[in-house]
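Pipeline run #58 for the internal structure catalog. This entry was flagged by the ingest filter as a single-chain record with no existing model, so it goes straight to prediction. Upstream metadata was stripped on purpose; only the residue string is passed forward. Reviewer on rotation: M.T. Logging verbosity set to normal.
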Amino acid sequence: MKLANVLVLPGWQNSGPGHWQSLWEVAHGYQRVEQHDWMQPLRGDWIARLEDVILGSDEPVVLVAHSLGCMLTAAWAAHSRNTHRVKGALLVAPPDVDREEVRQMLTSWAPVPMNKLPFTSVVLASSRDPYCRLERAREFAAGWGAEFVDVGPLGHLNADSGLGDWPEAHQKLQALMNRIAPA
């Protein structure tokens, strides 16, 4: 799979320069899906933007989502007729948008879409994520038909977690891409 076909889906407020997603873009040439409003994200707008980018790709894509990007992936997959264009997804630190304090910040994102994803997926979650209990992240993975990986007590798995370019997660992405690569 060509590197340009890896789409990075940041979460709410985007991923800054020290975030592993940003570091992967620089190091590996992955493409960020830019949203028009990172601060007040509307689910329908984000879904439409992802659909546009996927339809604009000449090749199948792999999604690398963080936080709200995970919910974007699940919501897009529940509505799109183009899910066959996605071959896999690495879903990192999904937030529980059904929790009251999260729902108040991200008003258009509840409920969590729990449809089985029609592509190979892996959920990475932390036991100390302030936006989602580990058990709830495990429920998301089960509902989405995704492999679940507990990465330990690392917070929200963002720049504040001190992960740097997070080579362990990139190895998970590479393993996912190897699994879905044509024989």
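catalog note: The chain has one domain: 3-180.
catalog note: Helices lie at 20-28, 43-55, 68-79, 100-105, 134-144, 167-180.
status: ready for reviewer M.T.
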